[in-house]
Design brief:
Helix content of chain B: 25-40%
Distance between the termini of chain B: 42 Å
Strand order of the largest sheet of chain B: 6-7-8-3-9-10
Shape of chain B: globular
Largest sheet of chain A: 3 strands, parallel
Order of helices and strands of chain A: EHEHHEHHHHHHHHHHH
Number of strands of chain B: 10
Number of domains of chain A: 2
Helix content of chain A: over 70%
Radius of gyration of chain B: 19 Å
Order of helices and strands of chain B: EEEHEEHEHHHEHEHEEHHH
Number of helices of chain B: 10
Oligomer: heterodimer
Number of strands of chain A: 3
Radius of gyration of chain A: 34 Å
Largest sheet of chain B: 6 strands, mixed
CATH topology of the largest domain in chain B: Rossmann fold
CATH class of the largest domain in chain B: Alpha Beta
Chain lengths: ~350, ~250
């Protein structure tokens, strides 16, 4: 039998060192912990005393001071004398059942979310129709305000990035075209790729990151701060009041955005063609106009408007269905960007089947 | 006359019932305080009565007509008859106080001349002594001013019932007292019905004509403050009158 005289102060740190010491000397039989000198203790000491035999099988407490006994008796005891036990580890069969149940729940939750998303999309189409007919239910001037936020503030980044994309595509294809003596076709390639594919896709992705994130963060904050509830109890339909100006704005802003991005992307390609092949800008444009036309521009425009709608509806959906805590604002914003980019790429893929 | 008449009302979120089987009435022209400890379901009940959260069971009549959550027309009727003062005011941050108060007027009556809107808004702001701050943004107002501004917005269309969710929370005792006075003035001058969710004992004592006490998923007490104060119910004595059995000794 080992007897250990505990120190005057016996709290968490001392408990750990005593336990470590006992375990280090393990195998020397039962232990008696002598509490006679213990004067300074805390809740860890009380919990340790209650779980002495769990911590040290066969251990015995001796000379426990009255103060410590009294404190331990009244220490955080539930009426039945114990805290809930940890749930038992599930068997293999019930684990499989739980996994299947979990997957089914997740699947059904996704289906419900998809249903709500489609319902919101249909609602927005209805609200826009009603607004265009009656011009009511939207704050005066809000559409202009949103056009400024979505359009004016997005032009610089969209044009700059699309210029760089034009440069990159031009450089990567220049060498291949030179191998076949087809340098002159760089204008066709840039024009076609930019107008039909790269400008709409990149603009959609940039809108998702810039406009979508901003709209979600704003609407989610309004939801958390009960501003959306306030609108509803004032008899104002938030899905109309907040979303219609944004959807009209994106519809009006995107054509100009696409036109400027097309110009920026083509300028990027033209600059590389001038430097690498010595191709004059006029010749570049002549060659490009022979291949691409208004139809290509129009398809690019239509695609980007659809992408813009997907981004704003996703952002509104995530913003207006957010929970009630501040941390959910960040989560909703991230989810909105992921959803928007996913939708943009899926819609682009669907367009590819119809256009080409 | 009762303006709200709830029968066997069960409220909660999803499948989780927060309050079960409540039957109570809110009398017109009086202040009814909904009280209870944190998490007792006060705000959940208010959301249901304000048309924001469908009941899980039972229902309630508003001004003699049943409120049907599946009917847009029924909800529109309810929204047109109530005003809500939210816990943090819930003023729209992008609009000035004037624009916030004008919002319901402009949205419901877009044909009204701007001069009329202006008079209505300033009358509402004057009622809560906020006319001088009309052009300020919510971020430029103190907590008490935001609440008074939000109250002006809730009152601007002369609703039949105003719901106030924790009007005193986060306010110092003097501002809280001023807000209580304001609620009393509204009741006396405009004969307005107010439903106030609170757990401020002093506020309940000052303003409440009737008290609904929620506890343990149900309605523990319904009556006036004198009845609450003289209650023998152990829970009421312990938690609300802050008395325990030692006080009786």
């Amino acid at each position: 039998m080992t007897e250990i005289l505990l120190p005057k102060s016996f709290r968490a740190a001392e408990i750990v060192s005593v336990l470590t010491e006992i375990r280090r000397q393990g195998g020397e039989g039962p232990v008696t912990l002598d509490f006679r000198d213990v004067e300074v203790f805390d809740s860890t000491t009380l919990a340790f005393l209650g779980h002495l035999t769990d911590c040290l099988p066969g251990a015995v407490a001796a000379h426990v001071p009255d103060a410590l006994t009294r404190a331990e008796t009244g220490f955080a005891r539930r009426p039945d004398g114990c805290w809930p036990e940890k749930p038992a580890v599930a068997s293999a069969d019930s684990r499989l059942g739980r996994l299947l149940g979990f997957l089914a729940d997740r699947f059904l939750a996704r289906v419900r979310v998809l249903g709500r998303f489609l319902a919101m999309f249909a609602d927005e189409v209805f609200h826009i129709g009603r607004y265009l007919k009656k011009r009511q239910g939207v704050y005066p001037g809000e559409t202009w305000n949103q056009m400024f936020i979505m359009g004016y503030r997005s032009y610089p980044i969209v044009c700059f990035l699309l210029f760089l994309v034009g440069v990159t595509i031009s450089i990567t294809s220049a060498e291949q075209l030179r191998m076949f003596g087809a340098e002159v076709y760089i204008a066709d390639l840039i024009g076609y790729a930019m107008l039909r594919e790269l400008v709409p896709l990149m603009t959609g992705v940039i809108l998702a990151g810039k406009v979508g994130a901003a709209v979600t963060a704003e609407l989610a904050s309004m939801t958390v701060l009960e501003e959306v509830d306030a609108l509803r109890t004032m008899g104002i339909v938030p899905e109309k009041f907040l979303m219609v100006p944004r959807l009209i704005s994106i519809t009006l802003v995107v054509p100009l955005l696409v036109a400027m991005a097309d110009v920026a992307g083509i300028l990027g390609g033209m600059a590389v063609a001038r430097v690498v092949f010595g191709m004059l800008p006029a010749a570049f444009l002549d060659q490009m106009i022979n291949t691409v036309g208004w139809v290509d521009f129009a398809w690019g425009l239509i695609k980007t408007v659809v992408f813009g709608w997907a981004v704003v509806v996703s952002a509104g959906f995530k913003g207006l269905t957010v929970g009630r805590s501040a941390e959910e604002v960040g989560r909703a914003t991230t989810e909105s960007v992921v959803l928007s980019v996913t939708l943009v790429i899926i819609i682009d893929c669907i367009f590819a089947f119809f256009i080409y | 006359m009762d303006i709200i008449d709830a029968r066997d009302l069960t409220v909660g979120y999803g499948r989780e019932e927060v309050l079960r089987g409540l039957s109570f009435a809110v009398t017109k022209g009086l202040i009814t305080a909904v009280v209870g400890v944190s998490g007792s379901g006060k705000s959940t009940l208010l959301k249901t009565l304000a048309g924001l959260l469908p009941p899980l069971g039972g229902g309630f009549d508003f001004a003699g007509a049943p409120v049907d959550y599946r009917s847009e027309a029924s909800l529109r009727r309810l929204y047109g008859s109530i005003g809500v003062l939210y816990q943090d005011g819930a003023l729209l941050n992008g609009l000035t106080l004037y624009e916030n108060v004008a919002l319901p007027v402009r949205m419901h009556y877009p044909e009204l001349p701007e001069g009329v809107v202006r008079d209505v808004v300033y009358a509402g702001l004057a009622q809560v002594e906020m006319a001088d701050s009309a052009e300020k943004l919510p971020a430029e107002l103190s907590g008490g001013m935001r609440k008074r501004g939000a109250l002006a917005r809730a009152l601007v269309l002369d609703p039949e019932v105003v719901f106030c969710d924790e009007p005193s929370s986060g306010l110092d005792p003097i501002t809280s007292l001023r807000l209580d006075d304001l609620l009393l003035r509204l009741k006396e001058r405009s004969r307005m019905t107010l439903v106030v969710v609170t757990h401020e004992l002093r506020s309940i004592e000052r303003v409440a004509d009737r008290v609904l006490l929620l506890h343990d998923g149900g309605l523990r007490f319904s009556g006036d403050y004198a009845g609450l104060a003289s209650s023998d119910d152990e829970f009421i004595r312990t938690f609300f009158l802050r008395k325990d059995h030692h006080d009786d000794a």
